[in-house]
Design goal:
single chain, 232 residues, alpha/beta, 5-stranded mixed beta sheet, 35% helix, globular
Amino acid sequence: MTRKYYAVKRGRTPGIYTTWAECQRQVSGFSGAVYKSFASRQQALAWLQQTQPRQHRPQQLQLTLDDQARPTQPAAIKLYTDGGSRNHGNKRGQHVKANDKAAWAYLIEYRGAQQTGTGGEYGATNNKMEVLALINALQFLLDHRLNNETIAATLDSHYVLDPITKGWLYGWQRRGWRTASGSPVANAEQWQQLLRLLPRFAHLSFQWTKGHADNQGNNVVDGLLNQTMDKM
């Protein structure tokens, strides 16, 4: 079998990789990734050196609305997700009670139509719901063979966005789902689920929006998850 070399010019860590799986970790979900495969390491190195960026560290995606407004064509699909929970007087950082309500929701806009989904769970954290919202939205798109469309996902949760756009997910995976400090990653099962889904989307970008403000899609999913908790 002929060996391939994958050169990543723009990604989480630019360089030359010998397997597609390694290359994929550097470019999947990274806005504006630039990479190419070659038959030899020499060819890959020559291509990298043609227009090698001056900085030795890749520029991370900046999650601002201004940055996300620059694409020349709008995404075919707009996706909004949110998660939330209600506790009974718990102080910040305390354990969630078994009867606390939690819920997730998503909104998908495609070709003038809207698709929503929501679900609830008792005794779950807000963070878990944030991850589940994105998982369920991506699974819906995958089930309906929309994963090759251009998709712009808007979230108000840095808890979800940062591990994806800053590459933390792959670090956790390499360390056996432990953080850099050695602590177990919270909601590891959900993160593993998400990590299996992300590489299946060819043109997926992320942006942050302030929650409970003036983003209509974000307000819709917030309303949906609260309706779910109201019914629990």
